[in-house]
Amino acid sequence: MLYRSVTAAALLAPSVLASPTSNGQNHTCKKTKVAILGGGVAGVTAAQSLSNHSIDDFVILEYNGEIGGRVKHTTFGKDASGKPLTVELGANWVQGLGTTGGPQNPIWTLAQKYGVNNTYSNYSSILTYDETGYSDYTSLFDDFENAYSVTEQLAGTILTDSLQDLNTRAGLTRGGWKPKKDMKAQAIEWWEWDWEYAYEPEVSSLLYGIVNYNTSFYQWSDENNYVWDQRGFNTWIKNEASTFLGKNDPRLHLNTIVTNVTYSDTGVTVTDSKGGCVEAEYAICTFSLGVLQNDAVSFEPEFPIWKQDSIDTFDMGTYTKIFLQFPPDKVFWPKDTQYFLYADPAERGRYPVFQSLDAPGFLEGSGIIFVTVVHDQSYRVEGQSDEKTKDEVMAVLRDMYGADNVPDPIDFMYPRWSLEPWAYGSYSNWPWGVTLEMHQNLRANVGRLHFAGEATSAEYFGFLQGAWYEGQKAGEIVAGCLKGAKDSSCVQDKHYAPLHGSTAVSEYDVQNGWTVTSFQTNGF
Ligand SMILES: Cc1cc2nc3c(=O)[nH]c(=O)nc-3n(C[C@H](O)[C@H](O)[C@H](O)COP(=O)(O)OP(=O)(O)OC[C@H]3O[C@@H](n4cnc5c(N)ncnc54)[C@H](O)[C@@H]3O)c2cc1C
Ligand SMILES: *[C@@H]1O[C@H](CO)[C@@H](O)[C@H](O)[C@H]1NC(C)=O
Ligand SMILES: *[C@@H]1O[C@H](CO)[C@@H](O)[C@H](O)[C@H]1NC(C)=O
Ligand SMILES: *[C@@H]1O[C@H](CO)[C@@H](O)[C@H](O)[C@H]1NC(C)=O
Ligand SMILES: *[C@@H]1O[C@H](CO)[C@@H](O)[C@H](O)[C@H]1NC(C)=O
Ligand SMILES: *[C@@H]1O[C@H](CO)[C@@H](O)[C@H](O)[C@H]1NC(C)=O
Ligand SMILES: *[C@@H]1O[C@H](CO)[C@@H](O)[C@H](O)[C@H]1NC(C)=O
């Protein structure tokens, strides 16, 4: 396992004076106004949001030894001087940037604020391969993109006319795209769809998949910038946290594994694996959908059916980057190209996209390339040994570039996101046929326990910006409640039970201020 294991060491932060309440385990509970469960983007942003509203009595309980959550890096390989290089295991791109003075992705604003090094990902800088080597099937990109335009418009019609959702397969078929057994077409489709959503078009929502794309890439800009900063992508999170958390701030409890959360209409009690306990007036749970699906934390009382069903219905995708370093003087792939797409003759999505970090503007001279798999291929790869995966990837590279040209790698590594007990997957995907109301049930509070994270964002699920906006919103709601607001700043999130059919979007807008309408006025 890649990640450092959590030690049984005491809280890094000095423990706070116990107050005379008991959690029934003969431990006294620390009292606070807000317990923030998880210190990823949503948790840190929720804390900042509270702080901005002058609520400073909160604690953040975080499993790992540092904040950032799924924005996580490690060292891999070495540069020419023997210094270890940093690569990102989780989030890697800022997706949809925006303009100075114009609408801008908050993650882009923050990445720029802290000078996070990044480079434009040029998706036209690509060469295509099959098991016989280089094979130019790039004309299929145009076929796909033509079908995609039809698919986007169809999603627009579904939205504006409140029609029933379809799966993305049906949308693409309407556009005339039918890859069937053509493995090259399947590779193109994987690049265009699965690579982003971590699931196949068959299981993905057409409507919300397109909403998700449109909100980031048409609202801001159609650019993805790849972060290769040697401090790690989470630099911006750490720096932003330090604007409202002091050094060794006692409110930040790292290496703290939450095991039990007891909630009601009057408060929330949180217990960790060492028996530590926090009694809060409100809590904001930012655990990933994977953590919620895997019963990694026990909630008491059990979630109501309307919430549990939505947790179980949404999809948690897995996205696995497999890193290889070759001797920098023996790089065998074209140096000025960013991407290499491989069409496996037998299995769709088997080692499909290789990405060079040796390309201009990235970690030039590093000899590093990595290949990404998702979903079933991730489960297979994450469930087998490094050695077996390395052999498989090397066989593919030798088919692509010729056995004589490809030396053995000098370093090899990949994370196992589907098995990580603090994530259980990479990011969520909206399954086809799931309504906005059911998604709202994932998002809604139960008693004084609120939820935030990438998965609770209807517009930006899967993206860093989703986690950021949802953290901000949850912080604002809880701050409103603590201030005893009677106005809209303490709105308990609406939930729907029982669920009926499909969403009447217009109605939903009015009740929740969801931004479908604003997408349209923004020219969508
Ligand atoms: C491989 C991969 C690639 C990605 N690529 C991109 C990308 O390029 N661009 C992009 O925008 N997004 C990307 N994402 C998605 C992005 O990383 C997430 O949307 C975002 O980081 C989620 O933030 P969050 O705060 O919602 O959740 P998290 O980051 O998961 O935060 C939740 C926190 O809760 C903690 N926690 C969990 N269980 C417990 C427990 N029992 N006790 C205490 N703490 C606990 C976790 O340690 C974690 O820190 C990627 C994700 C992955 C994994
Ligand atoms: C509870 O804690 C007190 C003080 O540490 C100790 O004396 C007592 O034995 C404990 N009781 C139980 C049931 O563990
Ligand atoms: C908190 O306030 C600062 C300063 O105005 C702002 O930059 C930041 O985005 C705010 N954070 C949230 C989560 O709203
Ligand atoms: C992207 O790559 C293509 C193909 O190599 C090239 O023609 C184009 O100029 C590049 N675009 C940018 C912005 O670098
Ligand atoms: C997405 O954007 C495209 C292009 O602007 C537009 O035709 C379509 O209606 C939009 N779809 C949705 C669901 O927003
Ligand atoms: C950021 O990029 C600059 C210019 O390439 C480089 O000198 C610097 O070392 C980089 N910093 C980090 C932390 O990656
Ligand atoms: C925590 O949850 C587990 C599993 O449901 C349960 O056995 C245990 O009693 C709970 N502990 C506390 C302190 O509530």
UniProtKB/TrEMBL annotation:
<protein>
    <recommendedName>
        <fullName>Amine oxidase</fullName>
        <ecNumber>1.4.3.-</ecNumber>
    </recommendedName>
</protein>
<dbReference type="GO" id="GO:0006598">
    <property type="term" value="P:polyamine catabolic process"/>
</dbReference>
<feature type="signal peptide">
    <location>
        <begin position="1"/>
        <end position="18"/>
    </location>
</feature>
<comment type="similarity">
    <text>Belongs to the flavin monoamine oxidase family.</text>
</comment>
<dbReference type="GO" id="GO:0016491">
    <property type="term" value="F:oxidoreductase activity"/>
</dbReference>
<dbReference type="InterPro" id="IPR002937">
    <property type="entry name" value="Amino_oxidase"/>
</dbReference>
<dbReference type="InterPro" id="IPR001613">
    <property type="entry name" value="Flavin_amine_oxidase"/>
</dbReference>
<dbReference type="Pfam" id="PF01593">
    <property type="entry name" value="Amino_oxidase"/>
</dbReference>
<feature type="domain" description="Amine oxidase">
    <location>
        <begin position="41"/>
        <end position="474"/>
    </location>
</feature>
<feature type="binding site">
    <location>
        <position position="258"/>
    </location>
    <ligand>
        <name>FAD</name>
    </ligand>
</feature>
<keyword id="KW-0560">Oxidoreductase</keyword>
<keyword id="KW-0274">FAD</keyword>
<dbReference type="InterPro" id="IPR036188">
    <property type="entry name" value="FAD/NAD-bd_sf"/>
</dbReference>
<dbReference type="InterPro" id="IPR050281">
    <property type="entry name" value="Flavin_monoamine_oxidase"/>
</dbReference>
<keyword id="KW-0285">Flavoprotein</keyword>
<keyword id="KW-0732">Signal</keyword>
